[in-house]
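Figure 2 data, in text form.
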Amino acid sequence: MEQSRIDELREVARALADDDSVEPVLRVIAESVRTLTDAVAVHIERYTGPELASVALASSSGANVGTTDDLNAQVENTDRIVISLGRRHERMGAIVLWRKRSAPPVNADQLERLGDLAVMAVLGLRRMMVSEELATTREDYQRIVDNKYRLITGISEELRNRLGAAGEYVQLLDTQGELTAQEKKYIEGSRRSIDASVHLINEMVQLSRAETGRLTLQLEPVNISAVLRGIVRDYQLELGDVGLEFDVDVPDLPMIETDVDAVRQILDNLLSNALRYTPAGGRITVRADIRPGRRKSDPSKYVCLSIGDTGPGVGDQDLIFEEVYRVERRGANPGFRLAISRRIARLLGGELSLDNTPQQGALFTLWLPGSPTARTVQPRSTDRDR
């Protein structure tokens, strides 16, 4: 008897944990109560505000009943028993059962099992409440995120227009007769500041788009080794001899399904960061390999693209991927590139990680799924701020 009771409770608990909907589990609990107490019918109700709302019903009468009042009208010669669910200060609902007046009394063992089932019913009702609260919170959060996106894009558009006008004025100044070397220096500095501001605004909009799910991807088979080698080669050709050593070890890896432009953007951000912080005579390492997931629970294989440097490393490792980190960091150019890169990596089903040794350099690794994954791919956005 004791083992069957434990098995019954274990099954109900498992259902409460695994099932998407609580109501079928409550119906199982109601039926268990009916069988245990030899009741004519059992009704589990939930209190919602000042009214009593029906949640689940298990009835041997076969009646289609929506409320306890309906059931009272259909079941005769019975006693109505109400078991309150929840603590006194949080009355959540009740188990209502109807037993024939001729039925034998409920014994101590049945009462104990009935108490266990009542606890399970409370857990079910509480899970319903939590699920509804989470749904409401999710809706509120999405509304806030959408409002934030609209605010950022609206302000960004206005700033672009104003900076564009400022750029035209600077261009006019550059054509006004003979300028002194100092005046040309001021004009060039103004032009660089305007360009940097426009670039920062574009990054801010892209970050907001990634946060709100508006940054869409186009997956296709990609030779990731060729992509990485090509980006490194472009940097080497463009920079020429800058006093840095490139140590590249990129073997031929299997094709993967990913967004090639998104991957290029991440790698470009990582390489430009490495170049910016690596002193003359330093070394930039580029590696590619296949690794298992970082968690034991992850059986997947990942293509890992790593870019390291021999620069000063990252002082605030926990903050490096935060949106405001680079804006506040002394001596760094303002931007959101690492924050954007990590969000894009996660949209691709991967991750962007950092292994850091202060004063000895930083190693960023882009983890990409090594095999095609099921996902919905939307058409690529054509917004000009992509």
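Caption note: Confidence is low (pLDDT under 50) at residues 326-331, 372-386.
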